[in-house]
Amino acid sequence: MDLPDDFPDNAPALPVLTVSELNRMARRALESQLPLLWVEGEVSNFTRAASGHWYFSLKDANAQVRCVMFRGRNQFADFTPANGDHVEIRALPSLYEARGEFQLGAEAIRRAGAGRLYEAFLKLKAKLEAEGLFDPMTKRALPRFPRTVGIVTSPQAAALHDVLTALARRMPGLPVILYPTPVQGAGAGA
């Protein structure tokens, strides 16, 4: 091999790395220099693998990054993202060594901005306000000394015991009417 004329004769020889060694070094450098951080973007190419892992890309107007959220982490998410969702993920930047691809390993995920549930809440609130249900002029004051208290909950609800104990302490002898209803699971919404 012919070396350029300006190549010094005493230049130290650089080690020759395999692709695997290079990718491992790059992954270690990334993981040691970039901390756990929050990243926001729009979900695209979302896939749930048979293993339970989530694979997706986060993108904004100018760039995208591949992401993985392993089953052990995504089982704690309170929603499953869909393509087009705007989310924030807490993630560790890394390099998938086998393909030499930069990726984020998601530890947690949350809806960004208002989120769909909050938007639904705001729509319901606006609807109820339009019906006048929050108008202070139509509200009646709570009685200073109630004659009876009604509780709508499940008879097995842990909070029921706390409420009954507080009522017995503050107003012993006050009649309490329990209207049993499911508070979670099937039928709770109705």
3D structure, described in words:
The chain has 190 residues and is an alpha/beta fold. The chain folds into 2 domains: 19-113, Beta Barrel (OB fold (Dihydrolipoamide Acetyltransferase, E2P)); 145-182, no CATH class. The chain contains 4 helices and 7 strands, in the order αβββαββαβαβ. It is elongated.
Helix content: 25-40%
- Return Rg in Å: 29 Å
* Sequence stretches where pLDDT stays below 50 over 5 or more residues: none
Name of the CATH architecture of the largest domain = Beta Barrel
CATH class of the largest domain: Mainly Beta
Give the biggest beta sheet: 5 strands, mixed, barrel
Strand order of the largest sheet: 1-2-3-5-4
Write the CATH fold name of the largest domain: OB fold (Dihydrolipoamide Acetyltransferase, E2P)
Shape descriptor reads: elongated
| H-E order | HEEEHEEHEHE
| Count of extended strands | 7
How many separate domains make up the residues? 2
Describe how the helices and strands are arranged:
Blueprint: H1 19-33, E1 37-48, E2 54-59, E3 64-69, H2 71-74, E4 86-96, E5 101-111, H3 115-130, E6 149-153, H4 158-170, E7 176-180
Parallel strand pairs: 3-5, 6-7
Antiparallel strand pairs: 1-2, 1-4, 2-3, 4-5
